[in-house]
Amino acid sequence: MKLTANQLDALTELINIGVGQAAAMLNEMIEFRIQLQVPWLKLLSSSDLQQQLQERLGKDPLSSVQLEFSGSFRGNAQLVFPTDSAATLVEVLTGEESPSPSLDELKIVTLTEVGNIVINGVMGSISNILTQPIHYDVPNYIEEDIEHLLPCENNKSDEKGEFLLAQSRFDIQELKVEGDIILFFHRESFNALLAAINNVES
Q1: What CA–CA distance (Å, rounded) separates 127 from 121?
Q2: Which of 35, 79, 118, 159 is paired with 69 by a 20 to 30 Å CA distance?
Q3: Other C-beta atoms lying within 10 Å of the C-beta of residue 137
Q4: pLDDT in tens, 8-17
């Protein structure tokens, strides 16, 4: 599936608005100023998505906060970091140092909350601006290889959909932590998303 320039611009703007709202919430939580940016957005197949993530984030297991959504649109949203970047981010948020990339229970809870804020900011922006109700499950934290993070790895026909990959960057003063926002929409839901965007623009 190919997106028109207007559709891609609209999706990018929706995510930018949501990320901006998430940054404002995170800034209220800690004394450091956090800036979140989404410089670009791509529509990818499952195999292309794996390749993109491996090129930027490496082949080691990744830290991911996942959230299933349903309603007008159905799919899965994730905030994905290299494990060491996730540990660095949580150290800044909690003020605790970790001698290894592994995260203890406190840090897992903290990172899950960060992911919940960012994902809800993005999905809330899509829901509110397009006036489409979206319901969320409880966020889930996992550490897995890239191929096991994708919701359609089994390649069943009823699980096929479209992946939106948004490269995100967390700027905390001089510290830079990179991550990715991944939105998976089931095929019929993605068509409904584009239809809603077209209705808003018309």
Answers
A1: 10
A2: 35
A3: 11
A4: 899 999 999 9
Q: Convert 21-46 to b/e letters by CB count within 10 Å (16 or more is b).
A: bbbeebeeeeeeebebebeebebbeb
Q: What is the DSSP letter of 153?
A: T
Count of structural domains, the chain: 1
The enclosing domain of 165 has a CATH number of 3.40.1550.10
pTM, two decimal places: 0.86
The string of DSSP codes covering 106-148 is HHHHHHHHHHHHHHHHHHHHHHHHTT--EEE---EEEEE-HHH
- CA atoms within 13 A of residue 142's CA, in its CB half-sphere: 12
Confidence of residue 99 (pLDDT cuts 50, 70, 90): low
Instruction: Output the CA torsion 156→161→166→170 (10° steps).
Output: -50
What is the Cα–Cα distance from 104 to 153, expressed in whole angstroms?
28
Across the range 130-134, mean pLDDT stands at: 94
